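To the wet lab folks,

You asked to see what we're planning to order before we commit. Fair enough. Below is the target structure as tokens, and below that is the sequence we designed to fit it. If anything looks off to you, flag it before the synthesis order goes out.
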């Protein structure tokens, strides 16, 4: 995300986002930390970075 900020203005494309954010009890909270980091970055960023994400299975994404 820092790299995207350095390249602003830009579009950050996240393909099949559900694979990185799907919650599972076996990952010891890693996916929840990644989701928290992403949401915090999206809320607090000052850089001109537009985020686009795709998903093949939106049912596996956390609400």
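Sequence we intend to order:
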């Amino acid at each position: 995300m820092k790299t995207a900020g350095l390249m602003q203005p830009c579009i950050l494309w996240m393909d099949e986002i559900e694979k990185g954010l799907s919650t599972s009890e076996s990952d010891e909270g890693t996916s929840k930390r990644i989701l928290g980091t992403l949401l915090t970055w999206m809320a607090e960023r000052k850089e001109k970075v537009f985020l686009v994400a795709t998903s093949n299975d939106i049912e596996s994404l956390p609400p």
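Structural context that might help your review: The two ends are 22 Å apart (CA to CA). The first strand starts at residue 10 and ends at 14.

Thanks,
Computational group
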